Structures are given as structure tokens and as C-alpha cells.
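Note to self: keep these together.
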Amino acid sequence: MSLENLFSLKGKTALVVGASRGIGLAIAKEIAAAGAHTVLAARSGDKLAAEAGELKAAGYSADSRSVDIADSDSIAAFAAEFRSSADILVNVAGTNLRRRMQDYTKEEYNRILDTNLHGIFEICQHIGGGMVERGKGGKIIHIGSLMSLLGLPYLSVYAISKAGIAGLTRVQAAEWGPHGIQVNCIAPGFILTDLNKDMWQAEHMHTWLKGNQANPRMGTPADLAGTAVFLASSAADYITGQVIAVDGGYTTTANWPFQPAY
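Structure:
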């Protein structure tokens, strides 16, 4: 197989849930560029339609649909249209709220889990179940977090959801592997998005980051898109059940001020 064909997504239908901005939009653009008919899905229908229109104007195959990942009826209606045709499902939709653990309200707790975990489970039941029924295999890619792998303060509910996604990834991989479906999770590091840009205005945050990972810069949504395309392609057919950190080395490296004398 040629290198081009190995990474090509031509002839595939890909659903990117949470594609209105940031990580989801960057992934949707690259999956479309790799040849897949790409459906951008999120709550913001007008913005999605505009983004899909730009992709079509660039010569790619794209469409958009509205779906609320925290609403079971919305998920079911969306999934009914694509259950028998989706080859690739990328779950990016998520929300976060940084609080001391004792300060979360029940409503905040439920909203984060409904969006980040429960809704993802439901859409996988529909779309993954359809892949099983169709018998042609498929790819499911979850977007986890550093919280899928470790702990940081003031993220307790978010951590529950993203650790759950890591566990779900492994079980789905085991259960659906015999059906030719590979399931993997990308765990982004510190990626600058609209959701966290205020936190990263402080210079001391960047100073801290430079001392704690091999690549001293913050990541961008584009830094994740290539990994998603790879996992969606036939090049990754023998990779499943993995939580893959795309984090500039944060989970595996650290820097220190020591310099050798010679």
C-alpha cells in the first residue's frame, strides 16, 4: 500500500462531534482534507454550516448537523441519520468548570458529566452499535485529557469524566475489536483554546510550563489533528485501546536548572 493510501480517508464518512471551534474544528478540517466526507456536529448550527461551507468551497466533502450531546433525544435523532453509514466517530464535545472540590453544585456536577461522559456513552451506543451491525469495521476516537492519566487541582468533576473516557476506551476496544472496530483516546496536554485562554494570560503560568515539559510551548488545536487523522486511517488498524498523550512531553518529562560543568 502506498503512503498516500495508508493515510487516506477517501470513501469514509466521519462524524466529528464538538466541531464548532478549537480542537474539534481543527480535527474536522484535517479529516476532510484527508478525503473523508466529514459531518461537523455541535449545538451551534449556524457556525457549523459556515465552517462546512468553507470546507466545501476548498474542494472537500463536508456537511453539518446540530446535536446537543447532553440531550438523549438530540443524540438519538442525530445518530439515526448516520447509524448505518458512519465509518469514523470523533468525540470532542466537552465542558469544564474549575472549582475547589467542595464548591461544586449538584447542577454543575451533572452538567459536566452529562456532556463529557454520559452523552459520549450514548452516542457510542448508537454509532458504535451501527458499526457492529454493518460489519465493516470502524474507528472511534475520543478526546480525553491529561486528567485521563493524572491529577491536577480544581478539576475533580472534569477528572471523573475524562478518567471515565479512558476506561470506556479500553472496554470498547476489547468489546468491539472482534468486529474490526478500533477505539482510541487522545489525551491533549496544555492546548490553548477559548475555554482556557484567560487562565494562560498570566506569565507565571508559562514560566511554570517551561520548567515542566520537554517542549516549552503551549499546544494548539492543530497539534492534535494529525494524530486524529492517523488514528482514523488504515495506518492505525493495529492500534486500539490506547490513551495517547499529545502533550509536549508533560506526562513523561521535566526540566531542571542543572547544567553540566563540561
